TrEMBL record:
GO terms for cellular component: nucleus. It holds the Pfam family HALZ. Its main location: nucleus. GO terms for molecular function: DNA-binding transcription factor activity, RNA polymerase II-specific; sequence-specific DNA binding. Residues 47-107 form the Homeobox domain. Residues 49-108 bind DNA. This is Homeobox-leucine zipper protein. InterPro entries: HD, HDZip_class_I_plant, Homeobox_CS, Homeodomain-like_sf, HTH_motif, Leu_zip_homeo. The keyword Iron does not apply. Probable transcription factor. Belongs to the HD-ZIP homeobox family. Class I subfamily.
Length: 182
């Protein structure tokens, strides 16, 4: 593929005489983001043609929204019926449904993200609280062990040793008999 140099000449995008707009040819960023209508796709014209994009009426949008709520997918028969009822081209109905599905998906993702984020935040707070509790308990254990160690040292010095006798269970006593001195 050949790279363009600054010395290469480019063909003008705009027909002569239409040098207005952000890109110098009557095309605005919002025009580039909106879907194409059949009028915009005329041969040789495209987005740069002089025809204006037609917006849907409020009634058409309401009817399309109502149909979208019933089923967000569009079968060819339903598309043709809607287009005929609303006075639109089937392609306009198809594009509207495609764009509406994209908006619906975005809203669904945003809603799911919000729910997951709030759940994560709650779990994070619980985790941090449990971590602080764990650290406090470990500190208490350490403190108690040191006290126990000090107490054991003090007990060893102050008390005389006591003779430890072996522990004998009752079953062992029964085997040895009642006169045994264990």
């Amino acid at each position: 593929m050949k790279r363009l140099n600054s010395s290469d000449s480019l063909l003008p995008i705009c027909p002569s005489g239409e040098e207005t707009g952000v890109y110098g040819c009557g095309v605005y960023p919002s025009d580039m983001m909106d879907p194409l209508d059949d009028d915009d796709c005329s041969v040789g014209g495209g987005l740069l043609g002089s025809s204006k994009k037609r917006r849907l009426s409020l009634e058409q949008v309401k009817a399309l929204e109502k149909n979208f709520e019933v089923e967000n997918k569009l079968e060819p028969e339903r598309k043709a019926r809607l287009a005929h009822e609303l006075g639109l081209q089937p392609r306009q109905v198809a594009v509207w449904f495609q764009n509406r599905r994209a908006r619906w998906k975005t809203k669904t993702l945003e809603r799911d993200y919000g729910a997951l984020k709030s759940s994560y935040d709650a779990l994070r707070v619980d985790y941090d609280s449990l971590l602080r509790d764990k650290e406090a308990l470990l500190a208490q254990i350490k403190e108690l062990k040191t006290k126990l160690g000090e107490a054991a040292e003090t007990d060893d010095m102050s008390f005389t040793s006591v003779k430890e006798e072996p522990v004998v269970s009752e079953s062992d006593n029964a085997k040895l008999g009642p006169n045994s001195d264990i």
